[in-house]
Amino acid sequence: MGVYDEELFNLMYKKTRRLISSMVFTIDCRRLNVTPDIVSSWFDDKLIFVFNKYHETFKDKPEVLLGHIINALKMFKYRILRSAYSDENEIFDKTVEVGEG
In angstroms, what CA-CA distances link 71 with 3, 20, 31, 32? Predict the structure, then answer.
């Protein structure tokens, strides 16, 4: 990740944690055939990427940096939803779990 302000990153992570949790809750993970913790890790990766991209530019303006992070996370959520409801993931709608229960 390179050199970065750890305090600023922890602040951004803390401020977006609840947002990420609510975004993960609104995504039907069964359509993607993954668990919610995996989807949450995708959002964490996106947060790290956006922070790494913009932290030098907006290190004096944390509210602007937070806005970029939130916007990127929302766009990423829409990208995941578009992928989940596309025809290529239609196969997971028709599968039946065989096993316990």
Answer: 24, 12, 24, 23
Q: How is residue 77 written in tokens?
A: 């959520």
Cα distance between residue 55 and residue 14, in whole Å: 16
Q: Which amino acid is at 18?
A: R
**90 half-sphere exposure, CB direction, 13 A CA radius:** 3
User: Dihedral through CA 60, CA 9, CA 45, CA 42, nearest 10?
Assistant: -110
Q: Residues 38-77: pLDDT tens digits?
A: 999 999 999 999 999 999 999 899 999 999 999 999 999 9
Burial class, 62, CB count within 10 angstroms (exposed 0-12 / middle 13-18 / buried 19+): middle
DSSP state of 92: G
